[in-house]
Amino acid sequence: MENMQTQTASKSGVLVSTDWVAEHLSDPKVRMVEVDVDTKAYSEGHLPGALGWDWGKQLCDTLRRDIIPKSQFEKLMAESGIGNDTTVVLYGDNNNWFAAWAFWQLKIYGHADVRLMDGGRKKWLAESRDLTQEAPRPKPAAYRAKEPDFSIRSFLPQVQEASSKRTADLVDVRSPQEFTGEILAPPGLPETCQRGGHVPGAKSIPWARACNEDGTFKSPEDLKALYGAAGITGTKPVIAYCRIGERSSHTWFALKYLLGFKDVRNYDGSWTEWGNLVAAPVEKP
Amino acid sequence: MKAEQYKEVKDQIAGWPVKIISYKAGSTYYVSIHNQEPGAWICKKEGTTLEAAETEARAQAAEMLGRTRRIPA
Prior knowledge:
heterodimer; A: alpha/beta; 5-stranded parallel sheet; 4-stranded parallel sheet; 12 helices; B: 4-stranded antiparallel sheet; 1 helix
């Protein structure tokens, strides 16, 4: 399996192993950034030299419920010592949920070389690799973002069209219980929607099915079989969604970069948008 | 510093399947509790012993998981 992962990583170029990261911790052309669900995890110990981004404070426009605007993105990258030619390696907890979400945002703003550390923080910890509590102080860099590329992002009207006209395959990556409407939020988390169920026409393929037990992504062959069994083959555009768009970023990454599907979008409005709409159709099996 | 004693254990709290993840970094033990489906982080506690951290984490997780409603079909 390890060989398969290495092949996957080298083939796509955007998925790097913990070994690769360990070898590049001091590489001045590479900047590691940790992005966690649990925003306190970074301070417990992180990869030597890695920065920590707080997704809720640094990567979100909480007033508009949006990704950060271009000017704020440029400022974050510059202050992080990231230039346009820097290789950014993202990793985080929960099998890279928010690291994948940050990856997606970096791609929206056109950063050329972004990678994910396969297995994320979990694998690094499990392998007893070096940690530090010291936060680096990078020398600010110059950074110019591109205009946002929304070809990888879906907004509500596109999802409505995909659902009503079947113009795209919808992939619901939440748990089966969220998909059926048995629960309104993952167990233990606050309910953030008014109704349970799923977008009509969506296929249920929980995000974790794409992972091995150690948190790494499954091989392209296994991923192809997983999504193909539900009719998701890449012949049509694909829109992935979850509750707030982070789990679906993980699936978006797998479909776009590990399977090479051309038109894959993340619907970050996800169920917290659809599940609160007035008069929107909801399917409950 | 390295993470030591990394461990993942499956269990049930308040009737929900959970995964309990623990490790030690420096002199501190960290215990986080996640639901098994979809794998979301629920809470985390730290302590000078694994038992202390896990007891606190279990208590908080039980409270949070106990609030989760099952909607009748």
